[in-house]
Design brief:
CATH topology of the largest domain: BirA Bifunctional Protein, domain 2
Strand order of the largest sheet: 1-5-6-10-9-8-7
Structural class: alpha+beta
CATH superfamily of the largest domain: Bira Bifunctional Protein, Domain 2
Order of helices and strands: HHHHHEEHHEEHEEHEEEHEHH
Shape: rod-shaped
Largest sheet: 7 strands, mixed
Bound molecules: phenylalanine
CATH class of the largest domain: Alpha Beta
Number of domains: 2
Number of strands: 10
């Protein structure tokens, strides 16, 4: 009787014990390879089969197969158990406590400049103004010459200009848009021209990039009193129904007469908010509108300035820093 039987039993019993004791899947795999692998204990024993008697050989083979099946079953069972256990551990560690307080949602909102722009457009839109836009990189011609600011005119110094190349500038005011619009469409026109503008200037009240909105109303009979009516409506809607406006004569090359417009602020205080005037005939000529027939007024204002007045903000630079603590307030 070959001692191969007892070797097999020894290997089998030890394997079952190791399988039972394995604490994780990696250990279990090591046990599997050490017993059932090509160079595992079972194969090693079967190599001795040649020396066994012809009578014993099939019995030993059967016994080996028996152990193999038992070990495989044990492995399978243990593996299932270990996997369940691993899943349990993972589920426990990933458990979400839905009773914890939330971290809070940060809701996006429109920037105060956008809010103010929209409010101005909504307000004046009720008077029938459409919106016109234009490029921020503008020709020197449309930004200056066409709105009656010839080369070497001192008014060019009022608007320190960024030059992009010969004859090309970053527009210094939205008046460039109104000129563009007039040259592209027939009159009558009633448009609002919002957009970013650029001037080489920077301090607490000036930024090299800021925003303007300009109004233009051209028709057959449009007078200074229409302008005053529109501006009064605008001021009351924006700043409160008791707001008054005051016009002070001023100079802008593209209007004649021109005025600076103040709004009343509390008792006995006036704040300048915009420039305005009757469109200079030279602009109609530049637009190709019939001489002496078209009449109109224009007004332009800084959007940041309006937003600062509405919200009591004293430093323009806050508008551009993207500081959430500031922006959250709007
Ligand atoms: N374009 C002028 C500026 O930038 C504002 C303005 C517009 C004044 C229209 C009068 C009429 O200051």
């Amino acid at each position: 009787m070959s001692n191969l039987f007892s070797q097999l039993d020894g290997i089998g019993a030890k394997a079952l014990e190791q399988i039972e004791g394995a604490s994780d899947l990696a250990t279990l795999e090591l046990v599997r390879v050490s017993v059932l692998g090509k160079k595992g204990a079972l194969s090693e024993v079967l190599k001795g089969l040649g020396s066994a008697s012809a009578e014993d050989r099939p019995k030993i083979g059967a016994a080996a197969n028996d152990w193999k099946r038992k070990i495989e079953e044990a492995l399978e069972k243990k593996k299932g158990g270990l996997e369940d256990q691993a899943l349990e551990t993972r589920l426990a560690s990933e458990r979400i406590d839905i009773s914890l307080p939330s971290r809070g949602l940060h809701k996006g909102a429109l920037h105060p400049i956008t809010q103010t722009t929209r409010r101005i457009i909504q307000t004046l839109g009720r008077l029938g103004f459409d919106i016109a836009t234009g490029p921020e990189v503008e020709t020197e011609f449309l930004n200056f010459e066409a709105v009656n600011i010839p080369k070497d005119h001192p008014a060019r110094d009022m608007q320190d200009t960024f030059f992009m190349g010969p004859g090309v500038v970053l527009r210094t005011h939205t008046s460039a848009i109104q000129m563009r619009a007039m040259r592209n469409q027939k009159w009558p026109v009633r448009i609002l021209c919002p957009g970013a503008v650029y001037r080489c200037d920077s301090d607490a009240t000036h930024s090299p990039m800021f925003h303007q909105i300009e109004g233009l109303w051209v028709d057959k009979k449009v007078s200074m009193s229409d302008l005053v009516g529109v501006l009064e409506f605008f001021a009351k809607e924006m700043f409160g129904s008791s707001t008054k406006i005051r016009l002070r004569p001023s100079f802008f090359p593209f209007v004649e007469p021109g005025a600076e417009v103040d709004v009343s602020w509390g008792k006995d205080r006036w704040l300048e908010v915009l420039g305005a005037g009757m469109v200079h005939p030279r602009l109609f000529e530049m637009a190709g509108y019939p001489a002496g027939e078209a009449q109109g007024f224009a007004f332009g204002m800084g959007i940041e300035r309006i937003a600062m007045l509405l919200h009591g903000i004293d430093d323009l630079r806050l508008m551009y820093q993207g500081d959430v603590r500031f922006l959250k307030q709007f």
